[in-house]
């Protein structure tokens, strides 16, 4: 597994990197088959350290976790516990969904845009109804079943997931509703 361990405006020592590689590698390999890459980012928010970890699996699924603590090692340990809990919870589902899948998840290229918010122009009427594009990025849309999409959304902690439905070959959306249930949009 490849590791990318970095800090946002803080120095990450060799001891912490060794600790992260040992603990994260052991926990992820216990619950997930063939992890390919782990990205761990440390930052500081006020008096607390923040640890964000993302693990990419060879099946195409991604698990992520985030934790805060006053100690940088404590932040990582809490984040690692959350990651292990997610992977342990979905281990059976991961194996069941991908047992029949002979090849990894396919990805379709797409563009992603960040649009300016209207909060800056409270008193002034906009000149056009066309929103201003701040940034354009490339993103990937996975080809999944609905069950795999729901699982991916829950593992990654995302509120919404856009995916290509392998059963109908169209673009679908799953999202977390305000009542706690999961919604599915199938155009």
UniProtKB/TrEMBL annotation:
One of its GO terms (cellular component) is cytosolic small ribosomal subunit. Pfam families: Ribosom_S30AE_C (PF16321), Ribosomal_S30AE (PF02482). Keywords: Cytoplasm, Translation regulation. It is found in: Cytoplasm. Its main location: cytoplasm. GO terms for molecular function: ribosomal small subunit binding. CDD domains: RaiA (cd00552). GO terms for biological process: negative regulation of translational elongation. Residues 130-183 form the Sigma 54 modulation/S30EA ribosomal protein C-terminal domain. Gene3D superfamilies: Ribosome hibernation promotion factor-like, Sigma 54 modulation/S30EA ribosomal protein, C-terminal domain. InterPro entries: HPF/YfiA_ribosome-assoc, HPF_long/plastid, RHF-like, RHF/RaiA, Ribosom_S30AE_C, Ribosom_S30AE_C_sf. PANTHER family: 30S RIBOSOMAL PROTEIN. Associates exclusively with 100S ribosomes, which are dimers of 70S ribosomes. HAMAP family: HPF. Required for dimerization of active 70S ribosomes into 100S ribosomes in stationary phase; 100S ribosomes are translationally inactive and sometimes present during exponential growth. Belongs to the HPF/YfiA ribosome-associated protein family. Long HPF subfamily. This is Ribosome hibernation promoting factor. It comes from Sulfitobacter geojensis. The gene is raiA.
């Amino acid at each position: 597994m490849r590791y990318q361990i970095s800090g946002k405006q803080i120095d990450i020592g060799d001891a912490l990197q060794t600790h992260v590689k040992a603990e994260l590698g052991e926990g992820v390999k216990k619950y997930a088959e063939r992890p390919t890459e782990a990205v761990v980012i440390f930052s500081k928010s006020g008096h607390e350290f923040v640890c964000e970890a993302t693990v990419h699996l060879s099946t195409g699924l991604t698990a992520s976790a985030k934790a805060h603590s006053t100690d940088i090692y404590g932040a990582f340990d809490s984040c690692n516990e959350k990651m292990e809990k997610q992977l342990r919870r979905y281990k059976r589902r991961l194996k069941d969904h991908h047992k029949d899948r002979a090849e990894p998840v396919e990805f379709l290229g797409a563009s992603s845009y960040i649009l300016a918010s209207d909060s800056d122009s409270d008193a002034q009427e906009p000149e056009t109804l066309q929103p201003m594009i701040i940034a354009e990025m490339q993103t990937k849309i996975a080809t999944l079943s609905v069950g795999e999409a729901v699982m991916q959304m829950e593992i990654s902690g995302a509120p919404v997931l856009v995916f290509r439905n392998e059963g109908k070959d169209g673009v679908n959306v799953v999202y977390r509703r305000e009542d706690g249930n999961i919604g599915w949009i199938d155009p």
